[in-house]
Amino acid sequence: MTLNHGDTGDTENLPRLPAVLAPGSARRVACPESISFMKIYPPELSNELVTGTTLLRPVAPLAPSVTVEEVMRLFTDNRELAAIPITEGRQPVGIIDRRRMIEQFAQPYSRDLFGRRPVASFMDPKPLIVDVHLDLGRLSQIYLDSGKTVQYEYFIFTDGGEYAGLGSGHELMRITTERVQEKLYDLAHTDALTRLPNRLLFLDRLRQAMSHAERAERLVAVLLLDLDRFKTVNDTLGHSIGDELLIEVAGRLQECMRDGDTVARLGGDEFTVLIPELRQITDAETIAHKVISALQHPFLLNGHEVFVTPSVGIAIYPFTDNIEELLVNADTAMYRAKEQGGNQYRFYTYRMHTASIQKLTLESSLRRAIDRDELRLHYQPQVELAAGRLIGAEALIRWQHPERGLLGPAEFIPLAEETGLIVAIGEWALRQACAQARQWQQAGRNDLRVAVNLSARQFYQKDFANMVKSILLHSGLAPNLLDLELTESTLMQNTAGTVGALNELHELGVHVTMDDFGTGYSSLSYLKRFPIGCVKIDRSFVTDITTDPNDAAIANAIIAMARSLDLRVVAEGVETEAQLRYLCEHGCHEAQGYLIGRPVPAETFPLDLPMWTAPCQCAHCRHPDDGAVAKPSSG
Q1: Which of 568, 549, 550 is nearest to 559 (CA)?
Q2: For 302, what's the count of Cα atoms within 13 Å in the CB-facing half-sphere?
Q3: For 552-582, how does the pLDDT look when each residue is reduced to its tens digit (9 = 90+)?
Q4: In the list 378, 500, 567, 601, which could disulfide-bond 562, CB 3.0-4.6 Å?
């Protein structure tokens, strides 16, 4: 009948006690819902219920009539006995604490005076009584709210309304604290959504794996994978489906791993795989194949069949012997896999590192290019074929890099799109082009319009139309002399949003051109809905228009369709007389290209460009009123 930590003893013959109550003088302790238990043991930290049975210690109870002398003898004979419950039948009525009894009756005269008295006179008549099936969080809060001294005081457990045993406040707090610490560790090292190790735990295991590999002369592989087009799932099906997908992906990744491998989630849709104890690099390649194969089959999520593929980057220790560099290199290789179409893996190479450094350096310089006045606009002439006269110019951006010289858009615009810098660069280009067109107006060219390319990010910005209006007001340029060019793929990204944004621009009086027409997937129904005034035939169809029947057929179809909708048609990339003659004969309205004029700075732009060729004498140009009229659109 000792209260010994770790010794549960035999409980079969112990009487049973009630839940959280004590009859008579014993105190009943309720568990009101209003009590907050977050201070001690937050419920959300526990994945399984741990109850008072963990603390239960069997101690045989005594009747209230047992004398003080008998109780003192029990305490003297058993030094591990810390407390004794007092019961009437099976109901607890009090508790005797060893420390207090010894303090009261340590002197011989005290025993002589009170030794024959019943122990009920000296017991705690209001013991804390709780049900043994209470979870530790609630039990801890009740114990603290009772005012008990944690280091010394004990309480009584009941089971089904009957005495079950004693519990120690000290033991309760110790176990509760350990549980909280375990759960806090789990929270700090585990991804809350997938229950996979998080970055912190992954790095710790990677550190251990690298240390062991160095001693054992083995390789360690880090696979970093990103789900291709995961954002589309989130945007179309919602974030809850996206979360379910991440959980399912985590499960499949774990299933295809070896014992000892670690799958972790770094955040978002990025996962990492740690493969220790490799003998050869091809082992990592085998696992990469398994990862890609595991994700090939569709995921059935809430009635939706979802397909995702991974882009996987692989870095190997000891070829890279720094933890952070190992992850950076795997990330670099992963992005190379993604750039090449995704659903594949790539090993990191030093060439990738060099390219990454160059990219970072370029990004850093690009962020300062506007402030340093390094951006330039060059203007390429646009002509009306029927009259052979200059009618406009397309503004094309350049970057006067301080070290690399004049860079074309292909060398920095993709990076600007990726980093979001395209918004600021696009606004700068729009302001500069409008200001320049206004100067041409003041120089006497009141009919010369300027075309400016827009990015998808820029076009779908909130209040973009208001920004355009502000720029026009500030520059003084008439709205009908501004032509905004958007690619076909940009206009088709969000058709509902596109129509609204185009209507706002139309109301301003600004022209809109669909650029690179024929390379996307727009339909005739959308062309009729969009308030655009012009389509631009992509240069890829113009280059071989006189030699490739397929390109010629596509160009002819575009021209015919545009004219039937009363839209202007512009051909870009015109470089030969034969191309120009073909386009003119088949009804194209306008053209631009090296044959007509190369992009040049504003100060050398040929405003006085003479009629560069005699007016075209083809049927379309001699009889413009037959069929559609080759006229600028009002939209």
Answers
A1: 568
A2: 10
A3: 998 999 899 888 888 999 999 999 999 999 9
A4: 567
Strands (DSSP E) along 454-554, which ranges? 482-487, 511-517, 534-537
The rounded distance, in Å, linking the Cα atoms of 289 and 268 is 22
Phi, psi of 452 (to 5 degrees): -130, 130
What does the alpha-carbon distance between residue 567 and residue 221 come to, in Å, rounded to a whole number?
A: 58
At 454 the pLDDT is 92
The whole-number average pLDDT for the span 481-509 is 84
**Tokens coding 177:** 């604290």
pLDDT at 420 over 90: no
In this predicted model, what pLDDT tens digit does every residue of 229-266 receive, in sequence order?
898 888 778 889 999 999 999 999 999 898 889 999 99
Pull the structure tokens for residue 255. 């299933």
362/354 Cα distance (integer angstroms): 12
Q: What is the dihedral angle through the alpha carbons of 38, 44, 47, 49, rounded to the nearest 10 degrees?
A: 40
| 250, two tokens | 């985590």
pLDDT averaged over every residue in the chain: 82
Amino acid making up residue 364: S
Given phi > 0 = left and psi -120 to 50 = alpha, else beta, which region is 593? left
pLDDT at 30: 33
Decide if pLDDT at 341 tops 80.
yes
Per DSSP bridges, beta strands 482-487 and 262-267 are unpaired
Q: Measure the CA–CA gap between 239 and 249, rounded to whole angstroms.
A: 15
| Residue-wise pLDDT tens digits, 426-466 | 999 999 999 999 999 988 888 899 999 998 888 888 889 99
What is residue 429's predicted lDDT score, i.e. its pLDDT? 96
- Cα-atom radius of gyration of the chain, to the nearest Å? 41
Identity of the residue numbered 347: F
pLDDT value at position 634?
33
- With CA atoms as reference, report the closest residue to 154 among 140, 134, 168, 144: 168
The pLDDT score that the predictor gives to residue 476 is 94
Give residue 218's Cα distance to chain centre: 34
CB 264 within 8 A of CB 271: yes
Query: Which distant-in-sequence residues (6+ apart) come within 8 Å of 569 by Cβ?
Result: 534, 535, 536, 537, 558, 559, 562, 563, 587, 588, 589, 590
Neighbours of 458 (CB within 10 A): 23
Report helix, strand or coil for 633. Answer: coil
Q: Give the CA distances from residue 568 to residues 390, 446, 487, 507, 542, in Å, rounded to whole numbers and listed in that order.
A: 15, 20, 16, 19, 17
Mapping DSSP onto H, E and C, the string for 160-180 reads CCEEEEEEEHHHHHHHHHHHH
Phi, psi dihedral angles at 280 (to 5 degrees): -150, 155
**Both tokens assigned to 444:** 């006497």
What average pLDDT score do residues 590-609 get? Answer: 90
| Amino acid found at 68 | V
Q: What was the pLDDT predicted at 21?
A: 31
Q: Which long-range contacts (CB under 8 A, 24 or more apart) does 243-250 make?
A: 243/193, 244/301, 244/302, 245/299, 245/301, 245/306, 245/308, 246/193, 246/194, 247/193, 247/194, 248/299, 248/301, 249/295, 249/299, 249/308, 250/194, 250/195, 250/196
Which 3 state secondary structure label does DSSP give 204? helix
Instruction: State the Cα–Cα distance between residues 442 and 59, nearest whole angstrom.
Output: 104
**Paired strand residues for 18:** none
Task: Give the separation between CA 210 and CA 213, rounded to whole angstroms.
Answer: 5
How many CA atoms does the CB half-sphere of 602 hold within 13 Å? 15
Look at residue 355 in the predicted model and tell me its pLDDT.
Answer: 61
